[in-house]
Write a sequence for this structure.
């Protein structure tokens, strides 16, 4: 990757931020407002000073080749030239997430009537969800900003990822979760940090509290609040990997779960960047969003053919998708509509069915978010919204042991027997 | 890898096994008795017909280069030339396990007083344990033998791996577990298969029942019974990966958990093969075995300086290591003694401490088996049995969410608060 490192870009050292080193954010040029286009310099900012729109990282990309990427490490840092991270990112202790399996799902495809289906399986990330990707990018930013606390509000997976990455990096972590969160996700954060804070309320309440703390306390990097622009870029790696693992080409259709909506918008952004960089051929890709009916503000707006998202109070077992006021919901609507995709939602029972569909057919145990995505895929085929003859990728973002309760009453031993052959033959299983 | 595929080896088609295709077992030549050296042809055999000793796969290896391996897939099949699998193994639906992270553990090393420590983290395998490696090799053998049922007795992780791999491959699975197994591991098998059988008794009882069924029923491939020689070879990939990920060289010391003892013997075998093939330089590697005191027959024999393993009734939270009569225990003793290593054991409280040590310092949440290995590493340093100045690798074989109960009473939220900044500042965390 030496050509990437040596290329001279327009990215200056942020002048009014002493202590920020040259090249701290790689090829990133600025933070640009998604609404008005106003550019501000790279820093711990997330809202446009002109219009309060969300800021997003923009880049001056050098020439990047497939060969340079393929010669990189087997984790997201193979794409470091396309992320707001320094060229020496691999030297900082981090979780080394990504480059997860892309599995052809012949059995599930047959079951659902799809000719060519792939599962991008992010359940095998270091803390078993896609959040390790975004947190790795946020950790890099927090490090470059010399933050003293690494923090987040979370529905669970993010708390796991932040607490783990912080432990490995040796930075103090404080993670905030709704107090009614599944026990496994609680313990799975508390093993890494002594500062897990349970908050009475739903995710949106926790998120609001985090924003308040971020405004009051100095040196706190809330990954999905004040370093959100850097954090969010990590989701692009899902898109990069899908394209690279398909042999440097884009699929026809992708089904992606929608919580804040950030992941979906970033996968779409990633595809566009690969095309612009000449790394894949341009082609239409239909993007589909998946929600649980108990928290489906984006799907509701899509079906009502309106542009505004009306916030809801979540009531679903898909807690990692239970964001009632999704920050990127309007961009999800725009992308799904403009690409010819759709946003759909399913009931909690269909979520459970989706979990078992994926487990029984492909040997992947997903959490409720993945059950939602697989269940929505099924519904999209059944309702004719998704073309079963086109190549389709469904993203599994998390892991079933974190939401065990969702299925623990539905499956179990077929028989409990004494340790004798006679007892076994009596079961009729042989 | 074409040179590997095209090379002509001495491996014949097993003459008296019609239906076994040419090349079904790659470069494997025969099954050789570990005790008397007697060779039998490749088949679903596991005991020497001459002396009843355990059979192990032997090979006629072709020339294999680092470059060929590095050009392979990012899973265990990059080493297919060194495994008893066909050259087209990647075309069969399988879990694509392996090539997991090797992380330098600076924080944990500092805590334990080790100068250069690495963690080989197999918790990010498809079903979150190293068992996906061995099961992938067993599945290949079962497929080549045209088995109709894919089965195992298991302490939990193996059941997860067998049920998942079978689901993806589309072969009927039946998995047998002790009825007192942790609930997460039960559900984590039952999601994949409708034939999970809970057996009243400990693992050794379940194992005995499985052997009986394997003897009575035709067409059943019990991965760790009648196809055990093929299955066990999968553990070699842990050794291959450690060497490749260190930059094609061997470490000085390795700490490995001991259940049946198979993994430890196979990592040792892998290092030897890499040396013989000229893929790494020869050097002394001290091998250490880790057990929980509540099931420590090998450690007990090691300390008593005897050669015979006296079976025990397991009583430990490290259930995935709770094999009271370890099949490869005597070989573990031999290897640890002859390489200058040791076998050590720790209490359940030290196991819990090991889990938290790894989580708090490196952001890896391991199960009780990994807690045992990390805890034993600590004890080995403290007792002067392991040289802290030498480069050391510790293997993490599994994942904490499967044995949540071990730590769920020890960690939790630091505070539960209402969603206000005042409530937060009152905690004193800021």
């Amino acid at each position: 990757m030496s050509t990437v490192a040596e290329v001279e870009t327009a990215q200056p050292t942020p002048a009014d931020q002493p202590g920020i080193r040259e090249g701290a954010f790689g090829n990133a040029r600025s933070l640009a407002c998604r609404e008005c286009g106003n550019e501000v310099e790279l820093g711990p900012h997330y809202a446009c000073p002109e219009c309060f729109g969300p800021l997003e990282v923009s880049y001056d990309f050098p020439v990047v080749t497939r060969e340079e990427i393929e010669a990189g490490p087997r984790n997201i840092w193979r794409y470091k030239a396309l992320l707001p991270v320094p060229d020496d990112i691999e030297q900082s202790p981090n979780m080394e997430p990504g480059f997860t399996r892309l599995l052809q799902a012949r059995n599930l495809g047959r079951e659902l009537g799809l000719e060519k289906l792939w599962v991008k399986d992010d359940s095998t990330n270091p803390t078993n969800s896609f959040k390790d990707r975004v947190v790795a990018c946020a950790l890099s930013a927090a490090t470059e900003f010399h933050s003293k606390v690494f923090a987040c509000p979370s529905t669970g997976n993010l708390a796991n990822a932040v607490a783990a990455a912080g432990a490995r990096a040796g930075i103090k972590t404080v993670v905030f979760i709704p107090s009614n969160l599944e026990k496994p996700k609680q313990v799975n954060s508390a093993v890494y940090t002594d500062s897990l804070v349970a908050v009475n309320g739903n995710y949106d309440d926790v998120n609001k509290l985090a924003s308040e703390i971020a405004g009051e306390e100095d040196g706190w990097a809330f990954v999905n609040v004040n370093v959100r622009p850097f954090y969010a870029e990590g989701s692009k790696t899902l898109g990069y990997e899908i394209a690279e693992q398909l042999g440097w080409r884009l699929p026809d259709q992708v089904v992606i779960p929608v919580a804040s909506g950030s992941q979906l918008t970033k996968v779409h952004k990633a595809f566009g960047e690969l095309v612009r960089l000449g790394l894949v051929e341009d082609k239409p890709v239909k993007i589909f969003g998946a929600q649980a009916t108990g928290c489906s503000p984006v799907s509701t707006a899509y079906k009502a053919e309106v542009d505004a998202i009306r916030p809801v109070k979540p009531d679903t077992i898909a807690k990692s998708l239970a964001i009632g006021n999704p920050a990127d919901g309007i961009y999800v609507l725009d992308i799904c509509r403009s690409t010819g995709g759709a946003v759909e939602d399913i009931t909690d029972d269909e979520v459970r069915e989706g979990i078992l569909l994926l487990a029984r057919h492909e040997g992947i145990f997903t959490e409720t978010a993945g059950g939602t995505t697989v269940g929505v895929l099924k519904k999209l085929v059944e309702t004719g919204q998704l073309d079963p003859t086109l190549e389709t990728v469904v993203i599994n973002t998390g892991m079933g042991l974190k939401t065990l309760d969702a299925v623990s009453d539905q499956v179990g031993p077929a028989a409990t027997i004494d340790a004798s052959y006679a007892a076994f033959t009596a079961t009729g299983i042989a």
Notes: Confidence is low (pLDDT under 50) at residues 1-16 of chain A. The CA atoms of residues 176 and 197 of chain A lie 5 Å apart. The domain at 102-128+235-408 of chain A is CATH 3.40.50.1100 (Rossmann fold).
